[in-house]
């Protein structure tokens, strides 16, 4: 611990012997508070409250866009190596890869997941316009160990060989 020597010439006569130390502490704290408050600058303005709230009729449901029940032609994924998968229905996919590990319906969309030692293949099927049977429109492939993306075409080829 470093000790500093107090210069008796700086302190007033009545403080040299340890008297009125409380007064010096309080004055130091007040000076520090003034210096800190000077750093803030400016004034704080609050945001005004709205003068008028919108009138809502009790029991009235707000306008919400309703989903379309018309089948639209899905956009097909077009990348090399997915031929025979994109555009295939569930039966054709089962002939290629075997029974899916997952078969999940979400509305009119369907997700099939095929697994192998090399990868997981998620195939998304949507119904084309004028048909009730969904067809594969998109595929996604990842490693089963850590979920990292892998090449879709390589995963499809690996799952077909098993």
Q: What does this protein structure show overall?
A:
The chain is elongated. A hairpin with a 2-residue loop joins strand 1 (102-106) and strand 2. A four-stranded antiparallel sheet has the order 1-2-3-4. It has helices at residues 21-40, 90-97, 152-161, and strands at 102-106, 109-115, 120-126, 135-142. It is α+β, with helices and mostly antiparallel strands and 162 residues long. The chain is 23% helix and 17% strand. It is built from three helices and four strands.
| Structural category | alpha+beta
Q: Report strand order across the widest sheet.
A: 1-2-3-4
How many E-type strands? 4
Uncertain residue segments: none
How much β-strand is present in the residues?
Answer: 15-25%
Distance between the termini: 76 Å
Mean pLDDT: 76
Proportion of residues in helical segments: 10-25%
The radius of gyration over CA amounts to 37 Å
Order of helices and strands: HHEEEEH
Number of DSSP helices? 3
| Biggest pleated-sheet summary | 4 strands, antiparallel
Query: Which word captures the global form?
Result: elongated
Summarize the structure.
By secondary structure, this protein is of the alpha+beta class. It is 23% helix and 17% strand. The N and C termini lie far apart (76 Å).
